[in-house]
Each structure stands twice: as C-alpha cells, then as structure tokens.
Write a structure and sequence with these properties.
The chain is mainly alpha-helical. The chain contains 15 helices and four strands. The strands form two sheets. A two-stranded antiparallel ribbon has the order 1-4. Strands 2-3 form a two-stranded antiparallel sheet. Strand 2 and strand 3 form a beta hairpin. Helix 1 packs across helix 2, helix 9 packs antiparallel against helix 13 and helix 9 packs across helix 14. The longest helix is centred in the C-terminal third of the chain and has 24 residues. The relative contact order is 0.12.
C-alpha cells in the first residue's frame, strides 16, 4: 500500500475504488483491513483508491513492479509527508516520514550513516543474545502466540541498539513508558480525527497524549544526558551517532528532531519487524522443506551472530 499524495499540480483522475461512504470505508480500513483490501483488489485491480478522513484519497498499489517504481522516484512528484500527516500527533512534525523535499533529504542524509551495513553488523551479537534469552523462555509441548514474543525481542533490540541503553533503571523506565505508548497507539479510535478530543481525559486520544508526554520526558532527559556523555564519540548506538551527525552546513540535529526520529525508528521498526517475522515463521511452519534448509544453514553457521539451538518447541498458535 502506498500512502502518497501528488505534489502541487493539476490533479489527474484518481484510480477507481469502492463507492461506499467515507465513514464506512474508514471503519472497514481500521477494523477489517485485510478482507477490505482483498475485496478492493479483486474488484478494482492492483491500483485502487480508498477514501479516508484527513488523508483524502489514498491510492493503494499491490503490484510489486509498480511499488518499486514509486519507491525509486527521486523527484518531487510524490510527497509522502503530506500523506502521513495523520501520524504527526505521535511521530512529531520533524519526523522523516512527515517531511518532503529538501527537509526530508536533509534528515535522511543525517540518519543514513547510522544504518550502513558495517554498523548494523556490529549489533549482530547483541541482537542474537537478546533473541536467545527470549527463546529460552518459550514453552515446549504447547502452542503459543509468536507475534507478541517477537514484539518483545524487537523492543529490546531498539532500546539497546538504537537508544543505546544498558540494563538498569533507565532502560526499565523507558521500556515501560514506550510500551504504554505503543499500547495506546494500537487503539484505532485514537487515530480518528473527529475523536481526537480529551472528553475529560477519558478518551483513547487523551490516554495516547498522556503516554506520549511520559515518553517525551524520558527521551529528552536521555538526549540531554547523552549530549554530555564524555564517551559520546566512542559509542556506536544510533542515538549517539545521530548526536554526532552534521548536515552540509555543519548543523547538528535539534533535541526535537532527535526525539521525533527516535520515535519514528521505534514505531517503524518495532511492530512491523515483529509482524514480518511472525508471518515468516508461519510460512516456514507450513513449508517443512524450507524449514529444514533454514535449520541446516543455521547449524552450519550460515547466519550472523550466535543463533539459539533449541529443539522441541511446538508451533505457535497464531501471530497475536
């Protein structure tokens, strides 16, 4: 799915889509997304438009080649920031996902060096260790939900590799606070513009804003603490690297920019990665030959880092 809006220009006709009222399309998109999208694709083809409040007409692209074309576009014709404005209440206005044009490119250039292959490979042992410890606690002889397990793994990886926190009180506080933000953000009602009101502090939106404020206090405190760290230049976590980054004019990222990009990395890399891994294992468990090849490769040392070698675990019940 591509949530991109056209740059300012004479708008071409939108691709076809369901003629249902906007309110009904919104409810289906929020609460029955996969069946809704499957029906739209079956009726309208690989490119169709869904109408949603605030975002307007959202063009969905299902063809891999067309998706590749969209993501390879280097011009200013496609403006993802405009289409992602609904996420601004959580991500912040300086998130790379909400910026277009030169501002987007500046933030992207500042962030990219932190994710070069060699830097990511340094985190291999850390990621493997976090995974191994979690896997050791998995039950044997009974089914269990796998997606929630991967969510715990990806959150720990982000806290350690991205935020650069070691085990201790600060990590525990931020883990609990970010967990509260993620839980509040899963309430789809909080994302509906008409319901983004406090209603006496009892609404899903009000709970989301309280969770965001609690996270922000901890994040800004950690940013200030890290700026003053005497070993900043020797650290390889993403936050430290972003603090050291400079743009072409020699400017560093502000605290607000750092906060917004950290939350973006959390939300973009936490549940999406966990969900992808859960689907991967679901497919592998239905393809015994592929699973055997993967197990053989891991045992032969084909993966990076130290993989957990554990047998006897039963198949997960679902993906959460």
């Amino acid at each position: 799915m591509s949530r991109l809006s056209a740059a300012a220009a004479p708008a071409p006709p939108m691709p076809p889509g369901p003629a249902l009222p906007v309110a009904l399309q919104t409810l289906l998109w929020m609460f029955r997304p996969l069946p809704f999208m499957d029906r739209c694709r079956a009726r309208h083809g690989d490119v169709f438009t869904v109408r949603l409040p605030l975002s307007g007409g959202v063009v969905n692209i299902c063809d891999p080649q067309l998706i590749r074309t969209v993501f390879a576009d280097r011009g200013d014709r496609l403006r993802a920031g405009e289409a992602n404005i609904v996420l601004g209440s959580v991500l912040g206005s300086r998130s790379v996902l909400l910026l277009d044009g030169p501002e987007h490119m500046r933030q992207r250039k500042l962030m990219l060096p932190s994710f070069h292959g060699e830097r990511m490979q340094r985190h291999g042992p850390l990621i493997a260790g976090i995974t191994a410890r979690r896997v050791e606690g998995w039950p044997t002889g009974r089914a269990f939900a796998l997606r929630s397990e991967f969510q715990e793994i990806t959150l720990d990886v982000i806290l350690r590799a991205v935020f650069g926190l070691a085990e201790g009180e600060r990590l525990s506080e931020l883990r609990a606070s970010l967990g509260g933000l993620l839980a509040s953000g899963r309430n789809r009602l909080a994302m509906l513009p008409p319901l983004q009101r406090s209603f006496g502090g009892l609404s899903p939106w009000a709970r989301l804003m309280r969770a965001r404020a609690a996270c922000d206090r901890l994040l800004y405190a950690e940013i200030r603490r890290r700026r003053a760290a005497p070993d900043l230049a020797g650290r390889d976590d993403v936050l430290s690297l972003l603090l050291l980054a400079r743009d072409e004019q020699g400017r560093e990222m502000t605290d607000v920019e750092l906060r917004d990009e950290l939350i973006t990395l959390l939300l973009a890399g936490h549940e999406t990665t966990a969900t992808s891994l859960a689907w991967l294992f679901d497919l592998l468990l239905h393809e015994p030959a592929a699973m055997c090849r993967l197990e053989a490769e891991v045992l032969e040392g084909g993966g990076r880092g130290e993989a957990p070698r554990r047998t006897g675990a039963s198949a997960p019940e679902d993906k959460g």
